């Protein structure tokens, strides 16, 4: 565990370190005191996506923000056979190892987008570690693939583009990674001005790294292969931790799915509601998200 420079102008009072999670280096920011709370970002963001809510949460919680493996400044291992190194099982194990290294055997977790898929797997594989679970703007991966239709494929085309065999998506995105990243975020955020320019520049910096772009593709390839195998093996397993599902009322997930019904197929104790935003409530409606988290956590 070694301290590194971070972003004190964006996340005041937080400190940064690299933590060895059973052989995978995970960039981690920590701040606050109180019950432990882990926040997991999505694609194509980094841990900085939480910058509007993390300082407020740190008044009541010991807050941990990490870059998922492959993202931000965390390690970017090769995908391995069958994309196993980017299975949500492997990515969840990283995060549990980080929390244990920080002295937390049991904690609550809030996940957005890819981070929410990691959190879902964590709640199944590490049931005793997860106290409460918050999932932002997702339905279960297996459900979304199984119910794919033209409307979903049109709205979430990258689910089918990024999974194409190496190196097709990597080489195409390499032609203009800034354009791909910016269009991706702009297409999902529905509240103008929600993206902080300083944070966007960090997203660009990380996405310009070819290793990041390859890891992103491996993450999505895993979701369409080995993650579905794991989901099928655990088809009858239930999330036992209390689960709060929140989604953007102006986004795709709420438009195409009965979000609460999909999670009640997977978990015992589910509640939640839509927020008046697109895909990224932590950046678009941070006060509304904080209110929902305060009531649940």
Secondary structure: elements and pairs:
Layout lengths: L1 E3 L10 E7 L2 E8 L4 E5 L13 H4 L4 E5 L21 H14 L5 E6 L1 H12 L4 E7 L4 H6 L3 H6 L2 H4 L6 H7 L2 H12 L8 H11 L2 H14 L2 H8 L9 E6 L3 H5 L2 H6 L5 E6 L5 H4 L1 H11 L1
Parallel strand pairs: 4-5, 4-6, 6-7, 7-8, 8-9
Antiparallel strand pairs: 1-2, 2-3, 3-5
Helix pairs in contact: 2-3, 7-10, 8-9
Radius of gyration: 17 Å
Number of strands: 9
Which blocks of ≥5 consecutive residues have pLDDT under 50?
none
Q: Roughly what fraction of the amino acids lie in strands?
A: 15-25%
How far apart, in Å, are the first and last alpha carbons? 29 Å
Order of helices and strands: EEEEHEHEHEHHHHHHHHEHHEHH
Helix content: 40-55%
Q: What structural class results from the helix and strand content?
A: alpha/beta
Number of helices: 15
Q: Specify the biggest β-sheet.
A: 9 strands, mixed
Please, what is the average pLDDT? 98
In spatial order, strands of the major sheet run: 1-2-3-5-4-6-7-8-9
Q: Give the overall silhouette.
A: globular
- Oligomeric state of the chains present here: single chain
Q: What does this 3D model show about the protein?
A:
This protein has 297 residues and is of the alpha/beta class. It has helices spanning 54-57, 88-101, 114-125, 141-146, 150-155, 158-161, 168-174, 177-188, 197-207, 210-223, 226-233, 252-256, 259-264, 281-284, 286-296, and strands at 2-4, 15-21, 24-31, 36-40, 62-66, 107-112, 130-136, 243-248, 270-275. α1 links the parallel β4 (36-40) and β5 (62-66). α2 packs across α3 (114-125) and α7 packs antiparallel against α10. The protein is globular, with a radius of gyration of 17 Å.
């Amino acid at each position: 565990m070694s301290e590194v420079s971070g972003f004190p102008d964006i996340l005041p009072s937080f400190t940064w370190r690299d933590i060895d999670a059973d052989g995978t280096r995970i960039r981690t920011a920590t701040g606050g005191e109180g019950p432990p709370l882990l926040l997991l970002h999505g694609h194509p963001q980094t841990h900085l996506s939480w910058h509007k809510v993390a300082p407020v949460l740190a008044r009541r919680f010991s807050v941990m923000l990490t870059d998922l493996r492959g993202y931000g400044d965390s390690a970017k291992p090769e995908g391995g056979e069958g994309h196993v190194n980017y299975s949500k099982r492997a990515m969840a194990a990283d995060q549990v190892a980080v929390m244990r290294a920080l002295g937390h055997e049991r904690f609550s977790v809030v996940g957005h987008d890819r981070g929410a898929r990691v959190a879902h797997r964590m709640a199944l594989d590490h049931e005793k570690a997860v106290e409460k679970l918050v999932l932002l703007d997702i339905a279960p991966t297996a459900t979304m693939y199984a119910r794919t239709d033209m409307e979903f494929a049109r709205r979430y085309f990258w689910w089918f583009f990024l999974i194409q065999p190496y190196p097709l998506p990597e080489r195409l995105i390499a032609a203009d990674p800034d354009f791909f990243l910016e269009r991706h975020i702009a297409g999902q955020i529905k509240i103008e001005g929600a993206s902080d320019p300083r944070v966007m520049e960090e997203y660009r910096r990380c996405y310009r790294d070819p290793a990041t772009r390859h890891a992103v593709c491996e993450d999505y390839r895993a979701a369409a292969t080995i993650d579905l195998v794991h989901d099928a093996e655990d088809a009858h397993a239930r999330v036992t931790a209390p689960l709060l599902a929140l989604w953007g009322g102006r986004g795709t997930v709420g438009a195409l799915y009965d979000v609460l019904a999909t999670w009640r197929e997977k978990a015992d104790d589910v509640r939640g509601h839509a927020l008046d935003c697109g895909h990224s409530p932590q950046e678009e409606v941070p006060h509304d998200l904080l209110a929902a988290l305060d009531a649940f956590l």
